[in-house]
Amino acid sequence: MNACIRSVVRTAVSRGVTVMGIRRGYDGLVRGEVVPMDAASVGGILNRGGTILLTARSERFRTREGQAEAVETLQHHGIEGLVVIGGEGSFHGARVLGTEWGVPVVGVPATIDNDIAGTESSIGFDTAVNVALEAIDKIRDTAASHERIFVIEVMGRSVGFIALEVGLAGGAEAILIPEVPFDIHAVCQRITGGRRRGKISSIVVVAEGAADALEIGRQIEQITGLDTRQTILGHIQRGGTPTAFDRVLAARLGFAAVDQLLAGRRTCMVGTVGNAIEVNDIDAAWTIEKKIDLSRHQLAQVLSV
Ligand code: F6P
Question: Is the overall model pTM greater than 0.90, yes or no?
Answer without folding.
Answer: yes
